[in-house]
């Protein structure tokens, strides 16, 4: 039996030592590797010292090797507590604090033959050293189990906070630690008369096997497991949790920054009511679940979502408020919307937008306010393209659009109707005043030359003016302006004509 136990202790110690070395090599990959290697190194020293006790030729050497078990025990406690604090998302204990127990334990066991506070009595037995424990030993046991228990609570708490896919990291660590813990409890409190038998280091074989399997299967391949709190803290969205009375229960860093901007007085918001921080005008938003967009005083735009938390019994214990800054998104959306309404070459509004504006202006003109349009066609544009090239033709269109856009009121609109044709919408202006403006634009255009590789080019245009009639509409208005334009072109171009009065029905 002793030889068999020597083999078991030695095997357990060597396996634990191998695992400690392999784990230590991964210390740069994960902060959990170093404390885990300490646990296994302590278990290796524990088991090998037990094997030495069984083969020691003298009582003194056997007792000395028995005392040598406890530095390994101390390493197991330190490594376990270190591992649990780091995996729970906390900072590891300071090294000087972690060394207090091992140093005291070594000092007490080294001097125990003089004071007998650790072992009251120790005798060589069939399976090791049979001892009667003293107060220092029980203080060590109490401290060890207190630290192990506190570490276990940290692990279980962290496991509950972790994202679902990483809870198994904690679960398998606890499974691996369970076997030697049970073995130690049995050895200390039940098999006290088993002539020195120590199950704990043997059962570290189970720990090594479980932790080795988890490494090989990728369960422990993560760095430090991710918690839901870390996920929420990493979000750029402001996340706030309120109780049923609208008091802040928790906020993530993004929410804290947002609330600090809204509530410059500062201080913690936890425990305060929503209305005290964000103002009473947001009370309705929080009271009703849903989504809305709000605009800040400085022009910022926020997407505001309110989600009610539902309990199993159907009650609502609180509310989650998520606020996202969409200022840049809204700016880009407005820019894209504006681009969709513009002609790609000239920057003037396109025909689709012209149709929509004319329909809206026609409805608004029912109160008696006049609405006129000017349809413009660049003279001899085909000749310009043929002689100077399409690049110069494009340059001419851009210049005409620029001149028109720079000469109209803010409420007017310049649109490219198609090809070399433009339409200017003039709300609140009758046909006569519109014709006078169009003629001024015509003279301004003719007076400006366009530089080309073949020399300067003077550009003129013809225009037709029409006013919305009582029985007309946008289509009829465009038709009248088009008829007037073609009369101007047939009359010799470079002139402005107004549409003749007509009562024709629009299409």
TrEMBL record:
Domain GGDEF: where? 369-501
* A GO cellular component annotation in the UniProt record: plasma membrane
In Pfam terms, one family for this protein is HisKA_7TM
Q: What is the lineage of its organism?
A: Bacteria, Bacillati, Actinomycetota, Actinomycetes, Micromonosporales
Q: Which keywords fit this entry according to its UniProt record? A: Membrane, Transmembrane, Transmembrane helix
Biological process terms in GO annotation: cell adhesion involved in single-species biofilm formation; negative regulation of bacterial-type flagellum-dependent cell motility
Q: What sequence ranges are listed for the domain PAS?
A: 224-260
Q: Which SUPFAM superfamilies does its entry note?
A: Nucleotide cyclase, PYP-like sensor domain (PAS domain)
User: What are the transmembrane regions?
Assistant: 6-24, 36-55, 61-83, 95-117, 137-157, 169-191
Q: Which SMART domains match?
A: GGDEF
| One GO MF term | diguanylate cyclase activity
For this entry, the protein name equals Diguanylate cyclase (GGDEF)-like protein
InterPro entries of this UniProt entry?
Diguanylate_Cyclase, GGDEF_dom, HisKA_7TM, Nucleotide_cyclase, PAS, PAS-like_dom_sf, PAS_4, Rev_trsase/Diguanyl_cyclase
Q: Does the keyword Nucleotide-binding apply?
A: no
